[in-house]
Amino acid sequence: MVAVKEFSWEEVSSPDFGNPARQAWREAVAEIAEKAKATLPQCNGRVDKAVAIVLAGDVELLDGGKAKVASQSNGTTAYFVVNGTCECRDFAKAPSGWCKQRIAAGLAKRVTARVRAQLDAPANGQAAPASQPTAVQASPATPATPLPEAPASVNVHLELAGRQVQLTLRDSDEGRVLARLEAVLARFPVAAKPVDTTPQCPTHGPMKPSTKGKGWYCPAKLPDGGWCNSR
């Protein structure tokens, strides 16, 4: 597959180590992959596989932000990544839908943009203007949904080991997010607060236990100098 339209795959995969296209491509793949691992630590294994897919030239970027990614286990199969979804079976199981094909498509898209910007830079070696947008600053994802955003997400506050923590659940499907939230809430139930059984004076509030026997009394002193006789 041809991953970049502006320059040939032969340039990118050239055995000539001094080839600027090859150098820029591989440096961009390595740097953006590290950003992906930092953003998706639960998918580091998938990111490594996605890097292998990109370096093998097995990602074809299509019009409309779509991508075709070759299967690594079956050379005759290709999966389509469209609008943050993928046809592969791992998509439904991967955290927030980040299967290796979807990550590979995002990597290829961002690497392509970065290398194109580098090769289009002025011939005098100056860097491209700071105002020129590049995809290096974004995390590997589809163009419409930059990481770590997801089509569906929810935040929940929990108490773990005596500390208040915030847990964020992300997914490409709202129903799955709610199902995961339900499982988290069941795992971390809210502790029931003790019920205050102290009798209340209808006028002055909490009463005190009697020191002379059973029962309670109101400790409030009245304006006339007497004491409330609520029991």
Keywords:
four-stranded antiparallel sheet; 5 helices; two-stranded antiparallel ribbon; 231 residues; alpha+beta
Task: Provide an overview of this structure.
There is one protein chain. The chain has 231 residues and is an alpha+beta fold. 30% of the residues lie in helices and 17% in strands. The protein contains five helices and ten strands. α2 (20-39) runs antiparallel to α3, α2 (20-39) crosses α4 and α3 (44-55) crosses α4. Mean pLDDT is 76; it is low at 1-7 and 128-148.
Computed structural class: alpha+beta
Estimated radius of gyration:
31 Å
Largest sheet: 4 strands, antiparallel
What does the overall shape look like?
rod-shaped
Give the SSE layout.
Elements: H1 9-12, H2 20-39, H3 44-55, E1 59-61, E2 67-70, E3 78-82, E4 85-86, H4 100-119, E5 152-160, E6 163-171, H5 174-187, E7 200-201, E8 205-206, E9 208-209, E10 216-217
Helix pairs in contact: 2-3, 2-4, 3-4
